[in-house]
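Hello forum,

I keep getting stuck at the same step: I have a sequence, I want structure tokens, and every attempt I make locally crashes halfway through. Rather than fight my setup again tonight, could one of you with a working pipeline run this one for me? It's a single chain of 186 residues.
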Amino acid sequence: MALTPSAMLPLGTPLPDAALPDPNNQNWRLSESMGEKGLLVMFICNHCPFVVHLAPFFETLYDRLDRLGFKVVAINSNDVDAYPADAPDKMSEFAAQYRLPFPYVLDESQAVAKSFKAACTPDFFLFDGQGKLGYRGQLDASRPGNEVPVTGEDLLAAAELLAQGKLPSEASQKPSQGCSIKWKSQ
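Reply #2:
Ran it on my machine without issues. Output:
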């Protein structure tokens, strides 16, 4: 498993908008999924051990962000033909297993991942209520096997600042790390 860091899209970048289907073919438009204080867009997949390590925390993460006024959308941009474990039917199973209370959508063309400059799973992008990127990077310092508990402290600290209308410092933002997005052959 090769460790890939996130590319760290520039802060202040406007939310790249798109409408993507969930496994039931319901379309979710990112710009219409915003909460009062903003939106967390996270790139995940079903099979990456880094995502599976964090997945039991996703319901708690959603609850805490929701209380702050943020909504959440998760995007799977992996090549599902080459990686059938990430296919839509498996996305439904993953969402049910981890009780995901937010949309989990498929970026089949991979255009959305490219517009975010997403590089790995998981990769987190937190936008403020005006749709400007205020945080990108890791959920916290926990990784499979490092014995650091999953707390969401880095992302949640940024969300608390954004909810107060303050910008998290760039110095406090560390790249996420995980499996590379599985890009389609050109």
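Residues 58-68 form the longest helix (11 residues). If your local run keeps crashing, start a new thread with the error log.
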